[in-house]
Design a protein that fits this description.
This protein has helices spanning 13-33, 40-43, 58-67, 92-106, 119-146, 149-173, 179-206, 215-247, 250-282, 292-311; strands at 37-38, 45-52, 74-78, 82-87, 108-116, 176-177. It is an alpha+beta fold.
Length: 312
């Protein structure tokens, strides 16, 4: 089936670049105009720790809190059978109204309020940025050693592409950015790198077969040789992610949504960003550059075919 669907992927590389660029530009415009919907961990707020005399669960507590006017509140279980509710900064009368709503439904036996500052969120974001830059440095060294420097740059561009797409999508859909999102972003880097390495490894194996002026053909063949594996791997990875997004709790849904966007973007970028970028760069090397006469001859044939098709 895959063999019958073969198309010249590298011949359409500028289309792929344009498509990725469009998505990133739209995302960056949204980011500049709307920004990100940051969670309380990044903005600060109030946190209620409470215990009930009646048996309940996170979903039912979240329902009462949402009905009280806080649908975006984060509800979690903590030690001792307590529930922790993280909300925007509330005034004392708002706190009392929420506790009253919970008491009417579950009979509150214990409550305590704390002020949540944005420090924790900033610390997580700073740690993520440090981890990302360190990962990029290690990736450049590893991929340069395993393949070549040009492959390392193409890999890094694909990773940056995935991060920009993920951030842009979050801004467009307005989904809340939580600490779980940060964890998911780091996971996305690992998956995207794995997928790109699979493609580049096959390109390296087939590189000796590349004739002068036929590097793109070799890359096309290499990609189609691993296409089935990439599709199956991506689908199998996305299945549990989609299950978490549909059936998981709010924290798991935040994590799963970021994974869904990032893994989809990673599967795309390894084939439609990293490989075409490497091809574009390698074709400038003298050993792969097509002879001028052959290039002109091929160009003339292409024009003749286009004219013949129009004449029909």
């Amino acid at each position: 089936m895959i063999e019958k669907l073969r198309i010249d992927l590298m011949g359409k590389k500028y289309w792929w670049f344009a498509f990725s660029g469009l998505i990133i530009v739209v995302g960056m415009i949204s980011l500049a105009t709307r920004g990100l919907n940051l969670s309380i961990d990044f903005k600060g707020g109030s946190r209620l720790t409470t215990r009930f005399s009646q048996n309940t669960d996170v979903g039912r507590v979240r329902g009462v809190v949402g009905s009280a006017g806080y649908p975006d509140a984060v509800v979690q279980t903590v030690s001792g059978g307590r529930y922790q509710v993280t909300l925007p900064a509330l005034q004392e009368n708002q706190q009392q109204a929420l506790v009253k709503a919970l008491d009417a439904r579950f009979h509150v036996t214990e409550t305590s309020w704390d002020v949540v500052g944005p420090t924790f969120g900033r610390q997580v974001a700073d740690a993520m940025l440090k981890a990302v830059f360190l990962a990029w440095a290690i990736i450049i060294i590893y991929v340069s050693f395993r393949f070549e420097f040009k492959s390392a740059v193409a890999t890094l561009v694909a990773l940056i592409h995935d991060l920009l797409v993920t951030v842009g999508v979050y801004s467009i859909v307005g989904r809340e950015v939580t600490t779980a999102t940060v964890a998911a972003v780091l996971t996305i880097l690992g998956y995207s790198l794995y997928d790109t390495i699979i493609v580049f490894d096959r390109i390296r194996e087939n590189a000796p077969k590349a004739r002068r002026g036929a590097y793109a053909d070799m890359v096309n063949n290499s990609i189609w040789e691993v296409m089935t594996r990439s599709i199956i791997t991506s689908l199998l990875t996305l299945m549990p992610v989609i299950a978490l997004l549909v059936f998981g709790g709010q924290t798991l849904k935040d994590f799963a949504f970021a994974l869904l966007v990032g893994i989809s973007s990673g599967a795309y970028s390894s084939i439609f960003v990293a490989a075409p970028l490497l091809t574009l760069w390698k074709e400038r090397e003298k050993r792969y550059r097509p002879p001028v006469a052959r290039a002109k001859k091929a160009q003339a044939k292409t024009k003749a075919k286009v004219k013949a098709a129009k004449a029909r």
